[in-house]
Amino acid sequence: MVRHATILSLLILLFTGCNPDQKATIPDKAPLASLSTIAPAKAQKQSDPAQNQTQPTVDDSRKNAITNAVEKAGPAVVSITVTELQRGYTREFDSFFFRYFDVPVQREVKSSGSGFIISEDGLVVTNEHVASKNSKTIMVALSDGSKHEAELLGSDELADLSLLQIKGDRTSFPHVEFADSDDIMVGEWSIAMGNPFGLFADGQPSVTVGVVSAKERDFRPDPQDPRVYVEMIQTDAAINRGNSGGPLVNSNGEVMGVNTFIFTGGTSSGFVGLGFAIPSNRVQKIISQLQESGSVSLEYDPGMKFVPVTRQLIMQYPSIPRVLGLFVTEVNKSGPAYECGIMPGDVIVQIGEERVTSDMHAWALMREYEEGEEMTLHLIRDNKQYKTSMKLRKRVQGR
């Protein structure tokens, strides 16, 4: 009996943790929350701060340098609609003469392009072939859907750039920052933004992505179209009709250049992977002059005036050689032209390595020289050809 009592005491000690001499207290009913007290413990273990770090969502993973650049520069990209007056002819029947006559008429023609805002007060940069002096009205649509009339502050045909000012009571506009085009790397991301084919009349820009394919691509002035395209940025980001004037942006959302034209190689009229943009440093240089005076002038004064050699000029002055060139009409005795031996009556036929065909072509070629450089000129005098070198400098005031 004693042995059984000892065994019973040991069992009570094991299951209750009590001294055998103490009385064990056993509740009448097991608590209902006994199971629920175990579950929170497991949940607390799973929510360990070391293991419950914030995981990236799908939306976060979609963001990258390109989307950030578009978000930064997009609000400053605008759609430009221009109305121009073009002169044409219409055929009308005259009952008195019983024949048709071509009657001159003027008609309004609308075109669209792109641009971007460069200052808080609403200065807009675009191409000259988008908005020029021939523009009757210029309307600018922002990405927020608002539309504003704009005025032309200045344009330059040779550089193919125009500067606009948004009109109205609004005083604050989103604007972009320029990148240093000298620091552009071949192979870095390039993002073309604009309004191709006028698809987005509300101003929402279209975005295409590529890389900088090359730098400093030169297209020599065409005598028939003397626009100066030098040091151009080449990109394979898709550029189409209507993208002209829009920005080419880097991955930081900064403007590397102004999208201007594409090269098709005669294969088609659409984009084939060769787009070109005017570099930002050149844009800022031209725009600063347009903002200051409305026009662009040379950094130096050649010290002479000239006119193109034409048929009418040859008939008036039979001694002028019958060649394409520039007839010098005036020479400033305090200028570089006089110092290098150029005289009134000379005909300039070549600037540098380029044959001169018109006055616009000559100004385009002279744009490529800066103050302090030397310009080689070929001229004809008394039916003999001469070569001279002009040291370019600012005009010295003299008698």
Automatic annotation (TrEMBL):
UniProt record, GO biological process: proteolysis
- Tell me the keywords, alphabetical order: Hydrolase, Protease, Signal
- Pfam families reported in the protein's UniProt record: PDZ_2, Trypsin_2
PANTHER family registered for this protein in UniProt: SERINE PROTEASE FAMILY S1C HTRA-RELATED, SERINE PROTEASE HTRA2, MITOCHONDRIAL
Q: Which PROSITE patterns match?
A: PDZ (PS50106), PROKAR_LIPOPROTEIN (PS51257)
Which InterPro entries did the record assign? PDZ (IPR001478), PDZ_sf (IPR036034), Peptidase_S1_PA (IPR009003), Peptidase_S1C (IPR001940)
Which species is listed as the source?
Answer: Gracilimonas sediminicola
Taxonomy of origin reads: Bacteria, Pseudomonadati, Balneolota, Balneolia, Balneolales
| Region of interest called Disordered, as start-end residue ranges on this chain | 40-61
- What superkingdom heads the lineage? Bacteria
Per its record, what are the GO molecular function terms? Answer: serine-type endopeptidase activity
Q: Where is the composition biased (Polar residues)?
A: 44-58
- The segment(s) forming the PDZ domain are 325-383
Can you tell me which family this protein belongs to?
Answer: Belongs to the peptidase S1C family.
Extent of the signal sequence: 1-23
Name listed for the protein in its UniProt record: Trypsin-like peptidase domain-containing protein
